């Protein structure tokens, strides 16, 4: 008789709500992770995000081994894997933390129904966010679609509750199952070792975050995004700390939850404009232009440096993400969905809610988005945020030898974008 704790995007033992409650169960707990083929089959074999998951699981397994346990790793279609697990084990209970993406919601509903059909109890917890689903809503119960009032309500609620509880499971660790499960080697699971090293946390200068965060060469942002994506840090601990250290940094963590609640309340945003009035925009969608953008050869140094950083590392500084996204949608008039898909493929911190939310923001099609007539000038952005060209030279070593001409003139592209948007926006 056992209890399963099912890890998904909460890859840590520390301050893990679902795990904490699983360990209170009267049955020994078997920690489980499933490599979901429905996701993996669409990724290249050496996808760095899979590497990141491997590294995180290896770390968890090491910690579990010290406790005399180990993680059970399976690979397959999630529902089929659960079918096999229920034959293999006498399962009494299943615990997991909630995931709010549309695919995950559907998957979890199917698993919960399967468990229920076998009289197995399942328990789902909020772990990934401070406030989930509709917890931060307008007084009429409808979701916020504008960030600032959302943030104000979020802060009001956060400040009115007791400081975040710590779900410290150390006292209950003895309840782990003592059996030894094989931790399959990377080879057995079928992945090549990842080239990605876990990026060091960059929190020592966070007190100046509000002044330095926009300058890519300073590189003073936290680099926590992949950790938040895969749950290798606790959001409760981070928010608790951020609230004391820097309000602007805290407000970025609130943007994260804002876009999560937008995706939860309006799942159509994954593939449709949030503002359907923008559906009439005639995108140019030129494939050659798109290739130049992807490869970082547009002739605009700030855009090219950003895309080259992304291609080389799976990361791009936020200010530069805004510049490249605006350039794609407005200068090149390419549908934001193309850019969103490219980022989704490349970003180590790819998060559906944040990616879609920010892309729609840049395109002007999203909730609370940049106005359509605001067209970033990539050269002015460069002067403002990388005046000495330090970031640019890092990614474009040939910069000083004379850089190629821009693929499209800024003034021309700006006028064309505004005219195209104006003509396409339904009154
Ligand atoms: P910090 O500045 O240290 O911020 C701390 C954390 O706050 C981040 O790790 C992230 O979780 C959150 N955060 C910060 N800014 C935002 C934001 N604008 N929206 C939502 N959350 C935010 N972020 C992702 O995590 N995944 C994505 O797929 C993603 N796609 C983006 C696409 C575009 C076009 C743009 C403009 C931004 C995107 N962002 C995305 C938001 C932001 O660029 C990254 O979160 C940030 O650059 C990550 O670096 P950091 O951890 O050092 O950030």
TrEMBL record:
Domain of life: Bacteria
Cofactors named for this entry: FAD; (6R)-5,10-methylene-5,6,7,8-tetrahydrofolate
Domain Photolyase/cryptochrome alpha/beta: 1-130
Pfam families the UniProt entry points to: DNA_photolyase, FAD_binding_7
Manganese recorded as keyword: no
Positions bearing the site annotation: Electron transfer via tryptophanyl radical: 283, 336, 359
Record key words, sorted: Chromophore, FAD, Flavoprotein, Lyase, Membrane, Transmembrane, Transmembrane helix
Entry note: cofactor: Binds 1 FAD per subunit.
GO biological process: one example: response to light stimulus
Bilayer-spanning residue ranges: 17-40
A molecular function (GO) term: DNA binding
Family: Belongs to the DNA photolyase family.
The name this protein goes by in its record: Deoxyribodipyrimidine photo-lyase
